[in-house]
Design a protein that fits this description.
Residues 2-50 form the Helix-turn-helix domain. This is Excisionase family DNA-binding protein. The protein is mainly α. The chain has a single domain, classed as Alpha-Beta Complex (Molybdopterin biosynthesis moea protein, domain 2). 49% of the residues lie in helices and 12% in strands. A three-stranded antiparallel β-sheet has the order 1-3-2. The termini are far apart.
Length: 76
């Protein structure tokens, strides 16, 4: 499925100007049909899956309780 620059910006929640700059830098693959750029939506699947994975890992880490303070004293 191909998206326009505006649709891609909405899908990725970035400004249109940022998407345009990524296309110019070659970081997003796009096809120019003579009038506009068309972007294949599937190229973002892996990135979005990784972001969801990292979010879950961070949530799990933050949900772990802090370990007990052992309050070790040096007894001489």
């Amino acid at each position: 499925m191909y998206l326009s620059i505006e649709e891609t910006a909405e899908y990725l929640q970035f400004p249109v100007s940022y998407i345009e700059s990524l296309i110019q830098q070659g970081k997003i693959r796009a096809v120019h049909d003579g009038e506009r750029y068309m972007i294949n939506k599937e190229q973002f699947t892996t990135h979005l899956e990784q972001m969801e994975k990292y979010k879950r890992q961070l949530e799990e880490y933050l949900a772990e309780p802090l370990p007990e303070d052992l309050d070790i004293k040096d007894e001489d």
